[in-house]
């Protein structure tokens, strides 16, 4: 039997991320599971590395496929009644710009928060 839920992996130590997750938890339709990256165990059942999970938003679909970055954000919001507002971000005319903005923000957030920790212990987790 196929799982009925998508799982969104998020950075629970990021105030902006935590705020969005609180909103998603309230608005979602009950078919989205939330997994704090910092609560995941090392080599946990084929999950991407801790560093990759921190660099970009990751969502595992109910069929086991990975959706990353802006696509993951749009898919997560599709579990709410406001999902239709996010779908235009994936339109071919909008996606390149929206994706660059998302990736620029994600890179900046990661570098400001985690770059030193990665360099210190080499594992991709916080010291």
Protein architecture, described:
By secondary structure, the chain is an alpha+beta fold. The chain is 46% helix and 13% strand. A four-stranded mixed β-sheet has the order 2-1-3-4, with helices on one face. Helix 1 links the parallel strand 1 and strand 2. The longest helix is centred in the C-terminal third of the chain and has 27 residues. The radius of gyration is 15 Å and the shape is globular. The N and C termini lie far apart (40 Å). The C terminus is likely disordered.
How many β-strand runs?
A: 4
* Secondary-structure content class: alpha+beta
Succession of helices and strands: EHEHEEHHH
Q: Separation of termini? A: 40 Å
Taking all residues together, what is the mean pLDDT?
A: 87
Helicity level, as a percent range?
A: 40-55%
- Strand proportion, as a percent range, falls in 5-15%
> Which word captures the global form?
globular
Number of domains: 1
Sheet of most strands? 4 strands, mixed
Number of helices: 5
Which ranges are low-confidence, i.e. pLDDT below 50, for 5 or more consecutive residues? 118-127
Could you give the topology of this structure?
Elements: E1 6-10, H1 15-27, E2 32-36, H2 50-55, E3 58-60, E4 66-68, H3 70-77, H4 83-86, H5 95-121
Parallel strand pairs: 1-2
Antiparallel strand pairs: 1-3, 3-4
Name a few traits of the molecule.
127 residues; alpha+beta; DCC1-like; Thiol-disulfide oxidoreductase
Brief summary of the model shown:
This protein has 127 residues and is of the alpha+beta class. Helix content is 46%, strand content 13%.
